[in-house]
Structures are given as C-alpha cells and as structure tokens.
Amino acid sequence: MELRLEEGKQITLSEDKLKYLRLLSEQYPSVPSVCREIINLQAILNLPKGTEHFMSDLHGEYEAFYHLLNNAAGVIKEKVDMIFGKRLSARERQEICTLVYYPVEKLKRLRDEQVLTPYWYKLTLKNLMELAKLLSSKYTRSKVRKALPADFSYIIDELLHAQPDEDNNQHVYHEKIIDTIIEINSADAFIVAISKLVKRLAVDHLHIVGDIYDRGSSADHILDLLMQYHSVDIEWGNHDILWMGAASGSEACIANVLRNNIKYDNIEILENSYAISLRSLTIFAEKTYPKLAPMEAALKAISVILFKLEGQIILRHPEYGMSDRLLLDKIDRQRGTVRIGQKEYVLNDTDFPTLAEGECYRLTREEQQVMDDLKAAFRNSHMLRRHIEFLYEKGNIYRCYNGNLLYHGCIPMDENGEFDGMKVGNTAYKGKAYMDYASKVARRAYFGSNDLYDLDFMWYLWCGSKSPLAGRNMKTFERTFIDDESVWEEEKNPYYRFYQEEEYCIKILKEFGLETPTSHIINGHTPIKVAAGESPLKANKRLIVIDGGFCKAYQKTTGIAGYTLIYNSHGMRLKAHQPFESIEKVLEENKDIESTSDFFETEPVRVMVKDTDNGAKIKETIRDLELLLAAYRQGLIVK
Asked: How far, in Å, CA of 117 to CA of 52, rounded?
C-alpha cells in the first residue's frame, strides 16, 4: 500500500506496518491528537538530558547508600548552596538539606524543640518550592506531573509554576495556598511530599554496577530501596551472581553464600531476612568439630563442604581449566601439609574427619543432608525469591547506555590482549558473544529446568579465572588453611593490565558497537587505592573504575568510602565520599557525608535528550506518528 509523506516522498507500507499503525491509532485516534504528540515529543528532544548516577560495590552498606540516595550524592546540597548561598547562612542551608533528606525524622525533632511556628513553616515551604522549581526546570511539565506525590499533585503543580513577576491576584492566590496548607495542619505532610519530589528530580536514572550482596549486613534493605526507586538498572557483580546461583539451587553457590556470611558475621540476613535456618548445619558442625566454638565449627564445616562441591564441579568441567584448585586430594594429614604445584605448604589445621581416603570430594551422608536442607530453604524463601527476581528483571551482565559500556568485572583477555572466553561444544565464546552467552545461561539457571550444567556455570561466574564477573583465580582454600601469605595472591586476568591502555579500551568499546570518541567503560569490582595515589580514571579517561570502598572492610585500603559517577548534560564528574557516620548524626548535627568533586570531562555542547538512547526511541516514535498522520490525511486509516 502506497503512502505519500509531507515532503513528497512516497513509501510502500507493508501489511505488518499498516497493522501497527492501526494499533497506534487506538492511542491517537485523530489528526489533532497525533499533531499534539509530535509537537510534545519534538519539544522533549530539545531538553537537557537527565542526570545519571553510577555506583558500584555497595556490599550491604545500607545506611551510607540510603543517605547517598537521599542527598543525591551531594547534588541537593550543591543546588541549595546555588540558590541560597547569598541569602542564608551555612547552618541554615544545611538545615534545609537535612529536612529534604529525612523530612519525617527532622520534623519530629524540630517539633520537640518547639521550632515549628507558622512563620517557620511559611519560610520553609517557600524555600522548598524554590528548590523544587530549579530541579524541575529541565523536565517537561508532563514528566514533572507524573513524579508529583498524588496527595498534593495539583497544589504542587500550581506553586511550581508561580512566576516572580505575576500580577497581584495571582500572587495573593499562591500566598493563600501556602497559608491554607499551614492553617489546616497539612504543612508536615506537604514538606514530606515536596522533599520526595526534590529527591526524585535530582537524579533521573540510577545505575548499580554490581555487588549489592555480602560483607555488609543489609543487602536486603538496599534491594528493598532499589525496588521502590523510580528508574534503575543493575549490572550483576560476582557476589550478586553467587546469590542468584544459590537461589537457583546450586549447592556450591549455597555453600559459598553460607561461608561468606558466617565469616563476616552476617547470619542475620540469612535467618531473619530470608528465613534460611542454619540449624542443620550448626548441629552437624558441633558434632563433627566439638573442640571449636559453635560458629567457628559451622564455618569450618561449610568450608570443607564447599571445597568438596567445588572439586566435583571442576572434575565435571575440564573446560573450566581450574584443575589447580583441586587441593583436597593433595593433603597429607600425617605430615600436616598440602602440595600446591611442586611445593608443599604447612596446614594450619589437619582435622578433616569427613575426608574419605580416595573419595575426598564426595559428601558424607550427613553433609549431603545438610545441603539438602539448605537447598530447600534457599529455594523456598519467598523474600529471597522476590529480591532475586528483581535482580533478573533490572539486571544483566553488561549494559550499553547513552554511549557508555557498563559492567562489573572484566572482558576476559589473553596474554596478547585478544578477547578470551570459553569453548562450549564446538563454539568458542569471546568478547560480546561471551557476555551474551553468560547472561543467557544465568537466566536459564533460574527460570529454566535447573540443569546441572547451568547451575555449575553460575558457580563459575562467581569465581572462574575467565569469568567476566570475577576475572581472577580465587585462593579460598589457601586463605583458609595456609598461613603462608605468599600463596594467597590471586592472579588477575590480563584484562586488568590492558585496561590501563586506551587502545584496548577502544577495542572493547568497538566490540559492543560504541565507536564515538565520547564513549566510556564504567567498571566496578576492584577497589581503587586512593590513599596510595591510584586514580579511578584509566586509559586517558576512557575507563572509569567506580569501586571506591563502600564496604567498610576496604576503606583503610582505599582511603575513601565510595564513589558516585555523575553524568549530566554538562559532562562527567566523580564524587569521592568520606565515611558516613550515622543518620543520627545527620539529624542531630546536620552532619552530611563529606564529598569532593572532580569534573574530568566537560561537554563542548550541552547534551540534549535527542543525543541519548531515549532520544533515538522518541525519534522513531515521531517517524511512526508522521506515518499515521499521513495515513489519516490520505484515508488509509479511517476512524
């Protein structure tokens, strides 16, 4: 079917395209409705791009993460200083910030201090509206309206669009709105609503570049926060995939999760948050290792079980190339040593009653019963399933977003800087194909038929030397049973040498179809030793490592307490954060996280929506609407 466009060009519509236009006409049933939407979308294309925030390696540090969400990584404080810097003192400005971060808690304290007078309310409401007006200026009224809290949407919309030079009647009208809010005792609820809007408008989209789980105690609370967040994506880290593998039923992943959380004293997340009982494990451990304290016995019991299960996987999969990790059969209990390569090392523990001669990788009947109980607990945990399915819904191994490539670990490489990976059957997976394959198997492991191959591969993604999420040869056995730290060093994939050089980063970007000079790789996983002078900016700023040490265990090494990468319409900058004390300190002393900002890349021309991925989708929609408009005008579609 022929269709003539406005510019005189004639095109042939396929039956499928015509069917699509008929479906589109249900949403836009008239020429005026199509015209309105084209005008609206063209206007959106010429707005500044929304602000993106990138964080990685949260590792269960809930309070610090929650605060950085509330203060938008310091952006809200910057906006408050910009507006009120010449009118209010530093203390008054920080009072506004704390009120925005924690409105319910701060209002309660101010009420106890008898600060909440009508004058205070009126001044505060005007200040908050001014802040909201600034943050809403880069969005369409339609988008802002969608973000408005339902209870006060009409009132906030009116106040947001009050003009400083409006006539007296309008000025009186808007003043009366504020007075009435105070008079009918709705000011507290209104402040809470405005604070929520300010935080919503400060960040348009959030990227979590891996490792929500482990080490810190509250990964479950972080996931609850993210599930409520307005716009987020997740690039899986190796600690995330470990929990995903455990929820899928991988016994090796379950044993690793147990070992990590017992070691870091985080069993509350298992027992209290996910209702995963350790009773079977602790009873077995106390019986098997009676000389140890209960949790020490549990840690040892699950460690031995883990090394057996890992050995089984390695023996099933020679293609993993991990035979060097088969160490249980190299133990000489009489001499108290283990042979690694050509050298013997002294063990710090030789009590291994469950290792059978000649069958050291086989679980005993009691160990298998422990794993059966734990597997059932992981598989039947409703809350864990809820969180894991959110990770699948919002997550992937990697993501291309607005010209940047995001992934947690690495793109495996060989010693020559060529892409490396894994051979499965007759197919060798490398580069992007390997990442896509890994994502496919990870989804199949949880949503598929629980095939043993897929479950084993989930474990490999956690710790394999060529895993794109791990990228190093883990030495868990050595760190557990050998005191000689010379064997603790975990050899990294050659990627971590080559990612310092721009030509290899460009090669990686091209592999993923990102060939613009403004494209970057955004990487997590390896903590940056800021205190030792290491920079997070690699390869002439083509690659940014944003693991700055959210995890408290790393902060002595990094010297800071995490990074936030901010990408807005003006360019990119890194915010380096100092350790967070507590929410209580914020409320008592208005004490914010101290952050320093490094503007490392400024755009020569402001980036607009038309330059983004969403802009490309909008342009495609406009093209379809123009076809629908022509079809209406030429009678191909009649309503």
From this structure: 38
Distance CA 407, CA 418 (A): 18
List Cα–Cα distances, 439 to 236, 458, 473, in angstroms: 10, 10, 21
Nearest to 106 by CA among 610, 590, 476: 590
Is residue 601 packed enough to be buried (19+ CB in 10 Å), middle (13-18) or exposed (0-12)?
middle
pLDDT of res. 96:
96
For the segment 571-590, what is each residue's pLDDT rounded down to a tens digit? 999 999 988 888 888 888 88
DSSP3 helix / strand / coil % (the chain, rounded to 5): 55, 15, 35
Q: What are phi and psi of 239, to 5 degrees?
A: -70, -35
CB atoms within 10 A of CB 538: 20
Phi-psi region of 203 (alpha: psi -120 to 50; beta: other; left: phi over 0): beta
Rounded to whole angstroms, how far apart are CA atoms 269 and 311? 28
Going by their DSSP bridges, the two strands 563-568 and 543-545 should be labelled as: unpaired
> At 30, phi and psi to the nearest 5?
-150, 165
Note the pTM of the prediction, 2 decimals: 0.94
Q: Evaluate whether 371 touches 251 at the Cβ level (below 8 Å).
A: yes
Backbone angles phi, psi at 511, to 5 degrees: -60, -30
Please name every residue paired with 139 in a beta bridge, in sequence order, or none if there are none. none
Alpha helices in 395-475 (DSSP H): 431-447, 452-463
Average pLDDT over the chain reads 93
Write the secondary structure of 538-556 as one string of H (helix), E (strand) and C (coil). ECCCCEEECCCCCCHHHHH
Amino acid at 295: M
Residue 524 contacts residue 545 (beta carbons within 8 Å): yes
Under a CB-based contact definition with an 8 Å cutoff, are residues 98 and 128 in contact? no
Report the run of H or E that residue 290 belongs to, with start and end: none
Cα 91 from Cα 77, distance rounded (Å): 12
Looking only at the bridges linking them, the beta strands covering 427-430 and 10-12 are unpaired
Are 549 and 558 in contact by the 8 Å Cβ rule? The answer is: yes
C-alpha Rg value of the chain to the nearest Å: 29
Q: What are phi and psi of 110, to 5 degrees?
A: -65, -35
Q: How wide is the angle at C-alpha 526 spanned by C-alphas 582 and 408, nearest 5°?
A: 95
* Structure-model confidence comparison of residues 553 and 66, the more confident one: 66
Residue 534 in contact with residue 519, Cβ under 8 Å?
A: no
The Cβ of residue 621 has, within 10 Å, a number of other Cβ atoms equal to 14
Cβ atoms within 10 A of the Cβ of 343, count? Answer: 11
| Structure token pair of residue 629 | 């408009």
Cβ–Cβ contacts within 10 Å for residue 277, how many?
A: 14
| Rounded distance between C-alpha atoms, residue 211 and residue 56, angstroms | 7
Instruction: Specify which residues 206 forms β-bridges with.
Output: 53, 232
Per residue in 147-205, pLDDT (tens digit) is: 888 888 889 888 888 776 666 767 788 889 999 999 999 999 999 999 999 999 999 99
Closest to 50 measured CA to CA, from 619, 615, 617, 623 = 615
DSSP annotation of 48 reads B
Q: Which helix (H) or strand (E) holds 334?
A: none
- DSSP 3-state of 568: strand
